[in-house]
Amino acid sequence: MAISRSDVERIAHLARLEIDAGQAEDVRAKLDAIFALIDELNAVDTRGVVPMAHAQDLSLPLRDDVVTEADRHALFQRTAPAVEDGLYLVPKVIE
Amino acid sequence: MKWEVVIGLETHAQLSTASKIFSGASTAFGAAPNTQAAAVDIALPGVLPVLNRGAVERAIRFGLAVGATINRRSVFARKNYFYPDLPKGYQISQYEIPVVVGGTIVIATPQGDKTVRLTRAHLEEDAGKSLHEDFHGMTGIDLNRAGTPLLEIVSEPDLASSDEAVAYAKTLHALVQWIGICDGNMQEGSFRCDANVSVRPAGETKLGTRCEIKNLNSFRFMQAAIEYEIHRQVALIEDGGRVVQETRLFDPDRNETRSMRSKEDAQDYRYFPDPDLPPLVIGDEWIERVRAALPELPRAMQQRYAADYALPASDAATLTASRGLAAYFEEVLRALGGGAANAKLAANWIQGDVAAALNRAEIGIEQAPVPAAALARLLSRIVDQTISGKIAKDVFDAAWAGEHGGDPDAIIAAKGLTQISDEDALGRIVDDVLAANAAMVAEFKAGKEKAFNALVGQAMKATRGKANPAQVNAILRRRLGG
Amino acid sequence: MLTGTLAELAAALQAGRISSVELTQGLLARIAAHNPALNAFVTVDEEGALAAARAADAARAAGTAGPLTGLPIAHKDVLMTAGLTTSCGSRMLARFTAPYDAHVVAGLKDAGTVLVGKTNMDEFAMGSSNETSFFGPVRNPWQHDHVPGGSSGGSAAAVAARLVPGATGTDTGGSIRQPASFTGICGLKPTYGVCSRYGLVAFASSLDQAGPFARTAEDCALLLNAMAGHDPRDSTSLERPAEDYTRDLARPLAGLRVGLPAEYFGAGVDAEVAAAIEAAIAELRRLGATAVDVRLPNARLAVPVYYVLAPAEASSNLSRFDGVRYGHRAEKYSDLLDMYKKSRAEGFGDEVKRRILVGTYVLSHGYYDAYYLKAQQVRHLIADDFRRAYASCDVILGPTAPTAAFRLGAKSDDPVEMYLNDIFTVAANLAGAPAMSIPCGFTRAGLPIGLQLQGDYFSEARLLNVAHQFQQATDWHRRAPTLASEASPPAPQEVAP
Questions:
Q1: Are B48 and A61 in contact (CB under 8 A)?
Q2: Domain ranges in chain C?
Q3: Boundaries of every domain in chain A
Q4: What architecture is domain C6-299+380-483?
Q5: Predicted-assembly ipTM surpassing the 0.95 threshold
Q6: Residue C493 has pLDDT above 70, yes or no
Q7: Pick among B15, B79, B135, B181 to test the A interface (most A CBs inside 10 A)
């Protein structure tokens, strides 16, 4: 799968990464090389093979429904970029 | 052209757990910002989700209540998108394999019962809240709600009008409270609906392009939003336009829906199984335990009321509007000794005086100052003819107000309200009334039946309502030779 | 005395030949002298270390000391350490103070170890050379113009340089074993789920495991004893009875079946590396092991599978770094979208961004089945290869990496070349099975060569046994680099205000 400039733009937007116009071609070329490596998988016959999502065949452990966490927002917000009245501040969200 | 409306609802019911779906933070509503946002909820680096058993149990309860299949193995996936109220940059939700599949909800329509099919119900986490008050041109983010467990209940597009959509939502709203999985508080956002609405020419089998309407946080808004949306789409098509698939927000102030700019972005959620969470496995034994603890459901109860007590369907439906109301009714009826006549008496009172008093006081049946036992004592005094139905209303009001400890018998005794049923005493009273109202007697004899009622009224007035009206009637008829 | 192994230092502490405070002070001085040249540490916590050392000495006086009490160690900077910066080698978290301890950090703290500092690493553990760190590359103590391997290059270099006797690392595709190989020390990646991932900043959640670095297998076993164990805060943490990983160290190797996959001995393996591995096999045979031919037919697919799955998970795991609640936020932006894009573009380095882009692509609409699902299927085939192989052997043996350490900058502009360095290590992560690297020789140029031992699930004690017996018969692990403390320090990149 050859990676195009528009592919790079599409995924960079999805991933919320700004890419300098000057670097775009270098980024594209490197991704292209990586996908050439990845494309080796295309030739493998995987019919009927169950996808392996986890390293161990476990079932989900469950927690009892009890409140165990105390308020620690002062500690957590100590390194926050912008906070006021206990709220995290971000540029205006438009709905 | 005649148009057909196709609606499917997606409902987010906040599950009534004490702690969040993947963290031990409290889910209590109304705390100061971010004081209930634990490390997992704010997605600190390195923290991991651990699933709350209580949330799963509630999902199972729902699945059983709607006759759905409980998947013995379901999978949590990540839905990836960026939004400030979504701390991880992904929402943990169930995608390909949800915990609940299928099931039905039966709604009442003017044409009779209608079965609405459910597609699925899946567990997921709620997002936080964006507060748009002005913080120097910025938005404030409160993550207290982030991680609150949600059950997203998806219906098939089986609803054909805004009325049906609202009936479905109301039935579902009552059910989730009935089975104790959601507090149903719509003001606090515990029960939220999105509607997928499309129109097509009548008879067309292909679905039209749908719009998803968000922010339907009351039944009234839902009705208005769907109505607006139907008219918008029909007008658009009739003007030669085309409906664009999009997400629209209902604006209750303008009573219209509008396109959501923030959702215009091409959505590509890049779902994949969450590597932090192995598959959720639910054993038969757990399901059976939940089934055994499931309360009788409103529909079964309505059928039982109709069969056992011959109650009209409307009464049965009203009495089973909530589990509390049904329990109240059943307790009253049990104390009265059961039977169809007592059932109807109790039903009338609960739907009449009790409901009116609850509405005036703006409280629920659980807070009623006249508990079921007291109402049953009051009604038994009507049954044994100690008081008339009319006097009973006064006793009820006194009990509601807490007079004499709210005890109907004490109120009747203290106020001397016991019905006069003594034949001789009533005879003397009737004789006095006849003597004092010769004109009325003459009118009656001249054929005016209304005059008879007036004479009964005089007898009741003379006893301040305490005379047994049936006996007064009988004595008067005898005296007047009618 | 300062440069002893954990076991030797523990004996010295127990015998009272040295106190933990003296040992800690001595190592802090070594770090101060040599770290400027090596850049192995990004944080040194002198005050905290001395306080912990004093507490350890008090515990010993009170008779409550355990086997690790008072021993100085370092943590890879991807593990959360309460009160200390935990940067993940990234500008994104350069100013982030961890508010809690990772499970393995707490385990080692409870065991009485003395944390002297946090070690440099490839940014967010993505790299095989330690050149992607925001804080500049780590130098290989054996030759400063060579890389120490990655991503746990700082921990490996610190242990190899005898700045600490032991350290933690994390291994997603070889990030413990490959740097252990490049620096001539031991590194163990446990079975997935043996060490809780709680507090390990996730790179690829289904592959990440923390593990120990030390100079001997015995020391690795001692560290793993304190790191392993069930943790209800990690839903993939395994609930198993506690193990003493030292229990089999002394077991003779007679009867051991060593699996030799042809796939690990073919073209692409450097001749000097191949020769050292052959010599190691001969040594094991001498110790009583028998060699068995096994096949891992899908081995060559491990790298492409890994470079689909790891970036896919990473692209999602790193979405939380959005400049909202912690971490870097761009100074100038026009709106919310711009803030996201600029904060992330500035906060992440090129390799991290590249992997986020690859991962986003393989999960995106229309490509999921062709890439992500396909890779998960091939992952299954790779795990099955191992299952079959372990029916006829106890351990699988081969080179940890195809070459010894390479020069700084040699591969930094060619990601594919860099990725192929992981060819022998990624499969163990995909299968979730344990593996370790131990030193088994040197190139003529004087660079260490690593032998990789892989085993079936939960065979850590067996791997450590084989490694320990090998080390009883060889002295590769005793060789120490000559530190050139006068070498000019690498200039760290400037941290933006």
A1: no
A2: 6-299+380-483
A3: 5-42
A4: Alpha-Beta Complex (3.90)
A5: yes
A6: no
A7: B135
